Amino acid sequence: MKTKDRRPRLAVGLISGTSMDGIDAALVRLSGSADQPRVRLLVFDTLPYLREVKEWLMGVAAGELTSAGGVSRLNFLLGELFANAALGVCRDAHVSPRSVSVIGSHGQTVFHQGRLELIPGHSEAAAPSTLQIAEPAVIAERTGAPVVADFRTADMAAGGQGAPLVPMVDYLLLRDARKGTVALNIGGIANVTVIPAKAKPPDVTGFDTGPGNMVSDALVRHFTGGREHYDAGGRAAARGRVNEAVLAELLRHPFFSGAPPKSAGREQFGRYFVESYFLSRRRARFEDMLRTSLELTARTIVDALARYVFPETRVDRLIVSGGGAHNRTLLKRLAELLPRLTVELSDQYGLPVDAKEAIAFAILADRTLHGLPGNLPRVTGARRGVVLGKIARP
User: Fold this and answer.
1) Is residue 319 a contact partner of residue 174, using CB atoms and an 8 Å limit?
2) CB count, 10 Å around CB of 120?
3) In terms of C-beta density within 10 A (0-12 exposed, 13-18 middle, 19 or more buried), how is residue 267 classed?
4) Structure confidence by residue, pLDDT tens digits, 180-213
5) Is the Cβ–Cβ distance between 47 and 23 less than 8 Å?
6) Do 326 and 378 sit in the same domain of this protein?
7) Is the pTM of this model over 0.90?
8) Are 258 and 303 part of one and the same domain?
9) What residues contact residue 321 under an 8 Å CB cut-off, 6+ apart?
10) Is residue 286 within 8 Å of residue 278, measured between CB atoms?
11) Residue 115 shares a structural domain with residue 207
12) How far apart are the C-alpha atoms of 190 and 177, rounded to whole Å?
């Protein structure tokens, strides 16, 4: 495709995040050029994982079920499930999947280490690496559409951390000539994109701030015996009190004091983190632990902005997306801590909070087909902008 091609085109974005709840699928109509797209969401849906699949994924991500054969089988199984999710949104929109110009599949992250890290008990350091599964060749064969997948690796090969990647889309869709903007996505991990007024791509910064919903979701699953998976609306956390001693200990985690670029995942804030800081405290109340985890999320977002953003950039508005946008207690706390900012939801900008990341990977895949870079080097730390992903064709 030509980079200036302005013909309307259909694209599908697929992603399963660090919460590992299921596959988000968005069918969008793109118009305008790939570097100045206009986006209209046609259909969004989530295909939940069966409990057995989710437990399998959690086991692999935790390092408990990591045989080569097991990961290979899971990769192909997820390929089928991701294909079903893409076919589902096409069916709901009454369009043929073969009329889709591209499917962008982020896949399911089962491991991500963005920077050189020491291995406990070893003298050598582990090199950065990442692994997202959901076989794109299967998706392409089942749908009849070209698939762009494995988005993170090209950025990492160029010296970046492979994440976050959504800031490119935040820049394309949310920049403003007069207002400085922070786009905050609260998924399993929370991350920010900082877009100064009148920004050009080199002006945009972004990074992961720490846990979003990951810790609270794990606490809910533990204390309800797996019957519930998240604190709906933040209602349970609202009944609790912050354990200041625990919070002070949490805030000393080295991730929070590290300067951007930085990215995080289950490797930093997964099962070991939850067990060490929360579940080891036998007499702690469930609601107090939830309230403390919520305060950790809010405080680390605000502290990161105060430390790395506000000294350099005037910010007028905070635009929130992701599952955490449904947590009224968390949004209220952010508004209390950031009284000078207007706190809005991405819905107000045509980007439904649950669909935004899936929409983003449809747009990033469209950029890949047009030969345009999808990363922002100042965000990921890469040496240069690179075209992201690998293309599987039917």
Assistant:
1) yes
2) 5
3) middle
4) 999 999 999 999 999 999 999 999 999 999 999 9
5) yes
6) no
7) yes
8) yes
9) 183, 184, 185, 186, 345, 346, 351, 353, 356, 357
10) no
11) no
12) 26
